[in-house]
Amino acid sequence: LQVYTPHTCTPRTSDTMAATAASASLKASTFVQPKVNAASLKAAPVSQAFGLKTASAKVSCSAEENVRGFVQKCADAGKAAALALASTALVASSAQAAVPRLTFDELQSLTYSEVKGSGIANQCPIIAGGVDGFAFKSGKYQVSKMCLEPTAFTVKAESQFKGQGEEFQKTKLMTRLTYTLDEIEGPLEVNGNNLKFTEVDGIDYAAVTVQLAGGERVPFLFTVKELVASGPADSFGGSFLVPSYRGATFLDPKGRGGSQGYDTAVALPAGGFGDEDALQKENQKSYKALSGNITFSVAKSNVETGEIGGVFTSVQPSDTDMGAKVPKDVKIEGIWYAQLD
């Protein structure tokens, strides 16, 4: 057991307190105490008689100094954490920019640990060898492992400069590296230099959000659902289906939805205010599909491995907030890859 003195500016040792307690106890006794030699008290402290250990007093005369020291430590820790976060972001961006382009066989040889967090899973394979252009003979083929990787997103919006009208503006990607379409398959008919491809199945949609220079965010569903593309190899394309960004069971902040929820905004006063014409689009949710258009161009092909690839340009509508907003045109440019059997 250790005895500490109160935290005051005039410290008292535990021996003094123990001596005081012992003296009071001796005076209060009713029986006769033997004589105690004063020299023995000086040689052996009274605290040892009670089984107490000597401990130095702790003094704290200024609480402000402790608080200031604590605040300074927190500030230093915050600066160190911010520096570490910035360094991590810099390293991550550098690693992402340095991700090499790999062929299909090289991608298949990687382990999960090598792919995880590297950004490779968001890339389409490249073709090693082969020739420029389209080199396959006429006939019927089956497309598999088709991959579409966007490299640029632009949104048609009002120009920030007066008198220039609407134009496709550059955007900042707000989505993680999960916007590539993959494993798309379907039949392909080749007649000379003319192609006709019909999309049947695959991971053919991805939710993406981009941000304009003014801060407005534009969500959309990047997709090629039910695509039928035809034309010459250097420019074949067609229209596809763009499903609603949100489904019929989605509820807005007022509890309204397409197939469930309230009919009107329950937060508005009664008496028909919730059914005004101005709120018609907000009340009547619409999740009907729209359409987009895409154009492919074959840049390289390898008949021996059955690989084909090139670039694409797609224009499709953005999210309509279930019919409440006018969709914006989104232009998506990128590269594509496929295998023919």
Question: What's the story with the biggest beta sheet?
Answer: 11 strands, antiparallel
Could you tell me the mean pLDDT? Answer: 77
Strand content: 25-35%
| Unreliable residue stretches | 24-34, 38-44, 55-61, 87-96
Total beta-strand segments: 14
Structure description:
- This protein has helices at 14-27, 38-43, 46-49, 63-97, 104-108, 112-115, 280-283; strands at 131-132, 139-158, 166-170, 172-173, 181-191, 194-198, 201-203, 205-211, 217-223, 228-232, 236-242, 290-302, 307-317, 329-340.
- It is α+β, with helices and mostly antiparallel strands and 341 residues long.
- 19% of the residues are buried.
- It is built from 7 helices and 14 strands.
- The strands form 2 sheets. Strands 1, 2, 3, 5, 6, 7, 10, 11, 12, 13 and 14 form an 11-stranded antiparallel sheet that branches.
